[in-house]
Amino acid sequence: MEIFIDTPWYVDQPMRVPVDFSLPDDALLAAVERHARTLPGFRPRDEWEAEMAERMGIS
Asked: Name one GO molecular function term (predicted).
């Protein structure tokens, strides 16, 4: 199953992680974030957005 959700962070795609849907939302998001932090390209989404705006000349 593929799921997309906006998060407060960015990580290079694709990101694959098993999830336990029995967890409360906050615990599930925290578990996914812990995994994401170990991957290349992890950074706060606002930093990624600023970088993309600069690359596109719209910053």
From this structure: lyase activity
